[in-house]
Design brief:
By secondary structure, the chain is of the alpha+beta class. It has one domain. Helix content is 36%, strand content 21%. The chain contains two helices and three strands; from the N terminus they run ββααβ. It has helices at residues 29-44, 51-58, and strands at 7-12, 23-26, 62-65. It has a three-stranded antiparallel beta sheet with strand order 2-1-3, covered by helices on one side. The longest helix has 16 residues, at 29-44. Bound molecules: zinc ion. The site of zinc ion has 7 residues, from α1.
């Protein structure tokens, strides 16, 4: 049986803070960054990431096949 798997970008907030179990997946890293920044802003009050912060987030993005 063929399994249709698709590649996603995945990022877990728990990589940055141990108190958060948020996990986000998107088809592109641009989309992922958008969700991630929304989450950081709405949930952790960290709005408007610095360029350093964005690089830090990007370095944690994983490719997953689902
Ligand atoms: Zn979080």
């Amino acid at each position: 049986m063929a399994v249709d798997s698709k590649r996603y970008k995945e990022l877990s907030c728990g990589d940055f803070r141990s108190d958060c179990g948020f996990l986000v997946r998107a088809e592109t890293s641009e989309e992922l960054m958008k969700y991630c920044q929304e989450h950081a802003c709405n949930t952790h009050g960290k709005c408007g990431s610095s360029p350093e912060g964005i690089e830090k987030i990007k370095s944690r993005i994983k490719d997953v096949w689902i």
